[in-house]
């Protein structure tokens, strides 16, 4: 406890802030009045006042009241923060519940830190009531001090956090990446317990130079501060235990501050979906760990995100968090990485720490064009929105997700608690009329919710959507003998893409078939049914050469008719002129419309409207052509009918209509009428 508090005073507390110290046991006393931290000497003087031992009862209420007294040395206590650290339950009055109204009335925030399983749970409630934060850890109290500072000051960043055992005459090696968005006031800190140290640190900078530091006898911390702005790149540290007496439990932390604005800073925040898991309430078992990874306000995609969950006295577990839109993650590519936690191992407090690494696959996703930056444009399916993906520096980040408490778990309750999650993204991605096949794709969910490998898929089909939705088990199963590719009995690991091709030779043409599936595990637990998709076999009949010939002839005939009409009009005007009839001028007014109808998303009809004028002339051919509907001439030439689409399960959004080789667009026969929109007025 003292080591973590010392690290906070020496390395974390903001320049210009004020700190005081209160100790409490059966009573409370002020050991350091408020001191403004303007220099390293100020920090050292306050650090020297930290207590080295504790004894007697536990009067947390006494400590809270005395803490308010210290805050009021600067005037109004409102907005002040009390960091309350305790290892036991209160047993001396006044209790927390008795002094809580005073704390609330004073407007004081209480951050609470529990560092043993015996610590009073009322501290967690106190933090929530006052707008503070609560942390629990038996091994890494540094994070309990660092995380509140990060949440309140977004320019403060934790690059690294780890707790590990360093055996006698052994070394620990690791690498931290400092990106260009941070680097100010960067500090490497390694703390341990025990009197004899014998710990040495060697830090290799990106330029290849080494810096060293070592702890003298009795030291419990090594701090290495990098002056100015730290160079961006990879920093490799070697921590060595040169002693031969005892192992050391090491807590390592690297912190830094932003070098630019908030929009350039890569930030990670993490949280859990609940603080209590009670095995007597099955609904509470579905706990999710989240991590938001952003640069400014834009999401980062392609990062490696890992949750490290430490169960007090029961072990440490790791869990990969994903941003794939499957499992616990609801939306792919939004910078929120998530996963269910299923590795409950007994009644205890579970502490969550999230680590994030960014490399060459990590990109920032923004929905404004990044001109001149070589950004890659990405269409978001069905949204019409374009995003830009741009690369970012390699980076490292750590973030605390808090802790949760597990209760009422019995020895036999750890056996296959969870069914697989249902598939949410089943899709028909291809259809072959000639081969009589459908291609289905989806994302594997897992054995226990979104973890592991399921045992099988149960794929069903029906001609009735309502029947498939309401009574899945009565629908027709797709058999292994009907699969041209893939299988339903060896699911891939959770998060990977599944693909099968179904061969269905006996299905009728132009009949819609619906598909859905369930996921099953080895103990007989099945998911609910997936989303339902549909498709049908539709033949695309190529046009014959006879039709093409007729089409070409129609075009030639239309051109000839237009030429004849123009000649007739010219003769008509010449005759009028010779008879000395009053002449008329003609004005042609352009009609507004699209420049290129083939690129319009809506159906566009290009035509000229007839006006009520006396002259008779030619009317250009009327053509309907668009993305969503194409009108083709009927066999008898009397009208038009929609062209058949060979794949009816999904609308095709091709931005440019395509035609077969040597095939002209369909035209309707030309009719006589007015050429253009004419407005007539007498010539003066």
TrEMBL record:
Highest rank taxon of the organism: Eukaryota
Residue ranges crossing the lipid bilayer per the database entry: 551-575
The VWFA domain, residue ranges: 10-159
Start and end residues of each stretch annotated as Disordered: 611-684
InterPro entries in the record: CLCR, Ig-like_fold, VWF_A, vWFA_dom_sf
Segments of skewed composition (Polar residues): 646-656
Keywords: Membrane, Transmembrane, Transmembrane helix
Protein's UniProt name: Calcium-activated chloride channel regulator 4A-like
